[in-house]
Design goal:
It is a single chain. The protein has three domains: 2-40 and 97-144 and 269-327, 3-Layer(bba) Sandwich (FAD/NAD(P)-binding domain); 153-266, FAD/NAD(P)-binding domain (3-Layer(bba) Sandwich), CATH 3.50.50; 340-455, FAD/NAD-linked reductase, C-terminal dimerisation domain (Enolase-like, domain 1). With 456 residues, the chain is of the alpha/beta class. The chain is globular, with a radius of gyration of 23 Å. Helix 8 links the parallel strand 9 (196-200) and strand 10. The strands form five sheets. Strands 1, 2, 3, 4, 5, 6, 16 and 17 form an eight-stranded mixed sheet that branches. Strands 18-19-22-21-20 form a five-stranded antiparallel sheet. The protein has a four-stranded parallel sheet with strand order 10-9-8-14. The N and C termini lie far apart (69 Å). The protein is 33% helix and 25% strand. It binds flavin-adenine dinucleotide (FAD) and nicotinamide-adenine-dinucleotide (NAD). Nicotinamide-adenine-dinucleotide binds at residues 148, 177-183, 185, 200-203, 208, 234-235, 265-268, 310-311, 341-344.
Amino acid sequence: MSTEQAEVVVVGLGVAGEAVGGALAKAGVDVVGIEDTLVGGECPYWGCIPSKMMVRAGNLLAEARRIPGMAGSATVTPDWAPVARRIREEATADWDDTIAVDRFTDAGGRFVRGHAEILGPDRVRVGDTEYTASRGLVLATGTEPVVPPIDGLAETPFWTNHGAIEAEELPASLIVLGGGAIGLEIGQVYARFGVKVTVVEAADRILPMDEPESSELIEDVLVREGLTVHTGSPVTRVTYDDGSGFAVTADGVPGDLHAEKLLVATGRRPRLAPETRSALGAPPRGDLVDDRLRIADRVWAIGDAAGKGAFTHVATYHADIVVREILGEDGPAADHRALPRVTFTDPEVGVVGLTEAAAREAGLTVATGIQRASSTTRGWLHKAGNDGFVKLVADVDAGRLVGATAAGPHGGEVLGALSVAVHARVPITELESMIYAYPTFHRGIHEALKDLRSAG
Ligand SMILES: Cc1cc2nc3c(=O)[nH]c(=O)nc-3n(C[C@H](O)[C@H](O)[C@H](O)COP(=O)(O)OP(=O)(O)OC[C@H]3O[C@@H](n4cnc5c(N)ncnc54)[C@H](O)[C@@H]3O)c2cc1C
Ligand SMILES: NC(=O)c1ccc[n+]([C@@H]2O[C@H](COP(=O)([O-])OP(=O)(O)OC[C@H]3O[C@@H](n4cnc5c(N)ncnc54)[C@H](O)[C@@H]3O)[C@@H](O)[C@H]2O)c1
């Protein structure tokens, strides 16, 4: 066993670890960065970037299909080949991280390819080498898919997001387990390319963590586009046969469902083994980090691993905070109150802060306001594909918004204004006195404020 010293050891060079490691190395800190898969992590290779390339392609097809009755006629012939090529060549460089590794080492970081075992707050082991960190240990280990303990599932060649993103050719049919962000984004794209898609969701609605209006909206759109959606249908058994593909038995669904491929998208959990938590002195369950993202003195967990929201913008937000912490610079602590997230279905579902249910659970006196996109001038003009709404969640006593949803065309962009309102605690009276450009989708906020006012 050999030993190497460093000032800072970063375990996991995904979005969060790469950002911390790179920034510290550039600042002259002696950093060892350890990665067992690809530098860059899930987002560029199997997550945000390739999935949004797929979404863009699917949205182009959908827009073309909206031409009849609006602008003439169009013949749409989907072809997956340019999408797969774009993912391989432009997004992932054929799943090769040479450029990212070079970026880190050019900045002065020391790169180690391998799996790190966390031995203690200042020690990790990779193979036969132990690395000690004099100034800090940063855990940026991301998440891994949760595979539910369904009878037979583990013995089948099911896909996670990796299989669905790497596909060079599309299957004729796909069953998606889980009606959350991954399942719905990928399921809708596949369906738009002609795949027969069935979504099976255990909860009583898809997008169960979002507003019920969002679940209803997206289910309605997906069904109109030809997907089959089963909700309240926990799967009890999965089998696979080389000739006939997958057979899925789900409660409340008559007979078995059959498809060529099965995508399991039932959530993700932080890649931190219980032994790691105990080696660091963290409790086995509950909040892992404090508001400085510390697990223990000079040990931080950031990005997906911190359990505060599995989004790339959380990873980079955390990275900035921990870089400041390690360099001894002042700055605000982490505040996840106004965390935004966008599910890139079409229509997009942008959410910031608390849903109505979460605000009520938090004991707030809640009022809501809602405006359907189709009832705004812009939505009416837009016509085909104008499904959506703006929903505001207000803390009546404070006179401020604590959450909002912007679902619809460009819902993620409309969300920007609402994120400012929740983050900066803008009084509702200020939002009401603003001028909203006409005719925009974000003018739906103005209309939803009127509904909120009329609700009291
Ligand atoms: C299909 C999909 C679509 C997504 N779309 C979006 C989106 O549109 N917008 C958005 O904001 N987010 C999206 N996300 C989430 C986003 O990808 C993650 O939030 C982001 O990658 C988190 O970055 P991270 O650095 O915390 O973790 P990761 O990117 O997971 O990186 C962690 C790295 O640590 C490595 N690692 C783990 N343990 C060890 C160890 N012991 N030793 C060495 N290396 C280790 C892993 O191999 C990995 O490379 C999506 C995710 C998926 C799966
Ligand atoms: N646009 C984005 O920002 C984006 C896109 C994709 C993924 N992500 C990130 O990745 C995370 C993981 O995505 P995900 O879609 O896997 O998780 P998710 O938590 O968003 O959705 C999982 C869904 O699976 C359901 N489910 C759980 N167990 C089930 C079972 N046994 N059978 C059927 N359904 C079951 C849940 O009720 C839930 O609706 C997201 O929470 C998000 O943080 C973000």
